[in-house]
Specification:
GO terms for molecular function: polyphosphate kinase activity. Pfam families: PPK2 (PF03976). Keywords: Kinase, Transferase. This is Polyphosphate kinase. The protein has eleven helices and five strands; from the N terminus they run αβαβααβααβαααβαα. The protein is an alpha/beta fold and 258 residues long. It has a single domain, classed as Rossmann fold, CATH 3.40.50. It has a five-stranded parallel sheet, sandwiched between helices.
Length: 258
């Protein structure tokens, strides 16, 4: 059973952050290449509190990736057109083709989090949502897609520090809106919804990975390590073979020898 209170220590990262981050990004670069050449699809999705550091993790996750073979989807409130479909439709339409990685900054779990707490979904709708989400994720996995679910947690004290820091920096104020304070005021209700979410959707095929986000550097390394391990486990990581025709042309044109 996942209890978010177990993820609030905020210990500093004990390694050499820049060196370890660079090493992880190189590893992720190669993992992406393996996905491209093997035609392996993957979905990495993030949930968590406002100002928890999801964006910073995603920025470092994709820093060395080939932009042609991944897409980051920042998920906001559904549009009028999206509301005309079931709540999973707008995510299904964003799923990437084989060889690509889809990264979701917030996700279909909005049905059982914000829509539940704010009353945008009826109790019947969000209660049914657990079963619909589990079926959706099981379908992704059955189709061969690697699914990684990351939740970035921060304590109320740390979240408040970061919200204040955003307000103090003029060029970061745009990142904080009324929704942040509305959600903050309902933290107990959100915690209840989050713990219900973990209890009902932390499945064997699609487990949750919770990151202690109180220290940003430690959180980034922990998240990237987990993502790299999970992605690499589901794809053949043998280096790609050189096309024999390319090798022949390279020998003639460049005097290249292997």
């Amino acid at each position: 059973m996942i209890d978010l209170s177990d993820y609030e220590d905020g210990h500093k990262y004990k390694g050499h952050y820049k060196h370890d981050l660079k090493k992880l990004q190189k590893q992720l670069e190669r993992i992406q290449v393996a996905h491209i050449i093997r035609g392996q699809a993957a979905v990495v999705m993030f949930e968590g509190w406002d100002a928890a550091g999801k964006g910073g993790i995603i920025e470092r996750l994709t820093a060395k990736m080939d932009q042609r073979h991944y897409e980051v989807y920042p998920i906001a409130a559904p549009s009028a057109a999206e509301k005309a479909h079931d709540f999973l439709w707008r995510f299904e339409t964003r799923l990437r083709q084989p060889g690509n990685i889809a990264i979701f900054d917030r996700s279909w779990y909005g049905r059982v989090l914000v829509e539940r707490v704010e009353g945008y979904a009826t109790e019947e709708e969000w209660t049914r949502g657990y079963e619909e989400i589990n079926a959706f994720e099981a379908g992704l996995i059955a189709a061969g897609t690697t699914l990684i679910k990351v939740f970035v947690h921060t304590s109320q004290h740390e979240q408040d520090k970061r919200l204040k820091a955003r307000l103090d920096e003029p060029w970061k104020r745009w990142k904080t809106g009324l929704d942040d304070f509305r959600n903050r005021a309902k933290r107990p209700a959100y915690l209840d919804a989050m713990h219900d979410m973990f209890a009902r959707t932390d499945t064997g095929g699609a487990p949750w990975f919770v990151v202690d986000g109180n220290n940003k550097k430690a959180a980034r390394i922990a998240a990237l390590e987990q993502i790299a391990d999970r992605l690499a486990a589901n794809v053949d990581m043998a280096p790609p073979l050189l096309d024999p025709e390319v090798a022949t042309v390279a020998r003639e044109a460049l005097g290249w020898t292997s």
